[in-house]
Amino acid sequence: MRIVVKVGTSTLTHSTGRLNIRRVEELCKVLSDIKNAGHEIVLVSSGAIGMGVGKLKLRERPQDMPSKQAAAAVGQCELMYVYDKLFSEYNHTAAQILLTGEDMRDEARHRNFANTMLRLLHWGAIPVINENDTVATDEIAVGDNDTLSALVAVSVKADLLVLLSDINGLYTADPHTHKDALLIDEVRELTPELLSAAGGSGSALGTGGMATKLSAARLCMEAGTDMMILNGAQPAILYGVMDGAKIGTRFIGRC
Ligand code: GLU
């Protein structure tokens, strides 16, 4: 299987913005093991701005563009240092790819990206992708990594996109405010009711939320790619995905 795994800032970092070492170590170990079992792995990782905030000891996530871009420059560097170090421990090779919305929209740039990805996968590397936050202004950005990971999954014709989040999946209502909200285990169609059940952005350090996850699901489903939302608190949950366990929410791609 070719699997794209997207991990969000709230999964990778503590609320301080500093790295959640135990979690990232477990994530790299599990992904390495799944790769050893013969699968291809692409990692879409957020965390550049969040980790930059932590490393620079800023009191909160900045709002202005130059500060966000500068924080991302610091955080992306630390992020790749960590992935390179941890994947190397399991004898795997990480490769950094930074993208903007323009790279996805422009035909020639998109083709170059897809060709590079296929070559990296052929060589057995683990592409680690993020938005190129140091140059991506609002006009040219994809804007969030849920959407970016769906565009990547469709581009490389992945079998599955897994969004590792701080929530167990899609619920019938916001589970933080509705105690009776139920987890939806399978979605075959994005109905207006489902779309209205999705709220806004989730954490102080990341950008995504259920709304961006559902637009990612739409992109995947239309292209015939399955997508799952899972809780990334314990990355070993990915073994369950490989074993076909009924966990999280699975969006079924149209064939
Ligand atoms: N590219 C952003 C970062 O690395 C995150 C975007 C997102 O969380 O959706 O900080």
Describe this structure in words.
The chain is of the alpha/beta class. The chain has a single domain (2-251), classed as Carbamate kinase (3-Layer(aba) Sandwich), CATH 3.40.1160. The protein has ten helices and eight strands. It has an eight-stranded mixed sheet with strand order 3-4-2-1-5-7-8-6, sandwiched between helices. The longest helix is centred in the N-terminal third of the chain and has 25 residues, at 65-89. It is globular. It starts with a strand and ends with a strand. Residues 200-207 have low confidence and may be disordered. Bound molecules: glutamic acid (GLU). The site of glutamic acid (GLU) has 16 residues, from helix 3 and strand 4.
Low-confidence stretches: 200-207
- The top level CATH class name: Alpha Beta
* Overall helicity: 40-55%
What is the C-alpha radius of gyration, as a whole number of Å? 17 Å
Number of distinct beta strands: 8
Q: Which overall shape is indicated by the principal axes computed on the Cα atoms?
A: globular
**Order of neighbouring strands in the sheet with most strands:** 3-4-2-1-5-7-8-6
The secondary structure category is alpha/beta
CATH superfamily: Acetylglutamate kinase-like
SSE inventory with pairings:
Layout: E1 2-7, H1 9-12, H2 21-36, E2 40-45, H3 48-55, H4 65-89, E3 94-99, H5 101-105, H6 107-122, E4 126-131, H7 145-155, E5 160-165, E6 186-187, H8 192-197, H9 210-223, E7 226-231, H10 237-242, E8 249-251
Parallel strand pairs: 1-2, 1-5, 2-4, 3-4, 5-7, 6-8
Antiparallel strand pairs: 7-8
The chain binds glutamic acid.
